[in-house]
Amino acid sequence: MTELAAPSKHSADGFGVSSRIQAALPEMSAAMAKIGALLLENPAAPLELSITELAERAGTSPATVTRFCRLIGYAGYPPLRVGAAADLGRSSAATWQSDIGRAFDPADSALEVLTALVSSHTAALQSTATQLDHAAAERAAAAIAGSGHVDIYGIGGSAGIATELQARLYRIGLNAHVWSEVHEGLTSAAIQGPGAVAVGISNTGRTGEMIEMLSLARSTGAFAVAITGNPESPLASVADVHLTAYAPDAYLQPDDLSAKHAQLLAIDLLYLLVAQQDFSRTTTTLAASAAAVAPHRRSLRSKGRTTA
Predict the structure, then answer these.
(1) Residues 6-55 pLDDT 10s
(2) 200 - beta bridge partners?
């Protein structure tokens, strides 16, 4: 039987993040002490930074951040973020502004929120359409259409976008696979080679695992495509081609849906450009898949009813 870890002596109810850090400082390694100093100086850091970003800011690793969290009485980074939020008083209007975004106000009506949403999503689509390199998209589409194997990587919020692209490509006859777990992704990257295509999707382009997977795939000979919101990001720098999916005014952290819509626009363009490369194959495979699922779709006319 697996033994449960003993609760930390710094996890007593009623103690905030700062109090726990102060109490645990004498027990911390030099690397953990750097994390503690960073959080004492900026208590909102866990709300603003991912675990990877916090580790980079403190000059350490995500694994060390996780150990730090456990030392001060949290099971991991997400519970630490909850504790930091509680300390800062999430219900305040000031916290709303920093966590949700300046486009919204706690007192806004449903209509005002809807109007702000439409504005944010429209801006994301327009920015993506303006900044996305058409020639790069055509080059990526040609590589995918001529590839015998396409691996698509997406972690966290980008995993759903990666799955959407894989489903579209697979339906038009492409041998496409999606990987959202780093070990499986690295395994797929290691066995690629010339003629394969690897696509990495990341809103920030700074996710360490994503950079590692796409970089490894490229090193084995695959043509690497990065889809990010920042053409200067580390992920873009390891790719052969970069497509910008840019959401200028993030309104919801950490899972900004306007950013996802920007990514969806980019992958939809990529999918259609791929479909154009072999239009006969595209129409044939789409017709075959439509016919396969047709018997499972109910008629719009309900049984027992007749039209007048």
Answers:
(1) 445 454 444 688 888 988 888 899 999 999 999 999 988 998 899 999 99
(2) 153, 226
Q: What is the DSSP string of 2-71?
A: PPPPPPPTT--TT--HHHHHHHHGGG--HHHHHHHHHHHH-TTHHHHS-HHHHHHHHTS-HHHHHHHHHH
Average pLDDT of every residue of the chain = 84
Residues found in the chain:
308
Picking from 79, 90, 128, 153, the residue whose alpha carbon sits closest to that of residue 264 is 128
pTM: 0.63
Token digits of residue 187? 């395994």
Q: Return the bridge partners of 158, or none.
A: none
Residues 263 and 158 in one domain: yes
Stretch 262-270: mean pLDDT = 95
Query: How many of the other CB atoms lie within 10 Å of CB of 191?
Result: 12
Q: How far apart are alpha carbons 208 and 62 in whole angstroms? A: 10
CATH code at position 165: 3.40.50.10490
Tokens coding 129? 């359409």
Measured CA to CA, the distance from residue 227 to residue 42 in angstroms comes to 31
Distance, CA of 11 to CA of 151 (rounded, Å): 43
* Model pLDDT, residue 303: 54
Q: Same domain, yes or no, for 130 and 259? A: yes
C-alpha angle with apex 187: 151 to 67, nearest 5 degrees?
115
What gap in Å lies between CA 270 and CA 133, rounded to an integer? 11
Name which residue leads in pLDDT, 256 or 231.
231
Same domain, yes or no, for 65 and 22? yes
Average pLDDT of span 214-239: 95
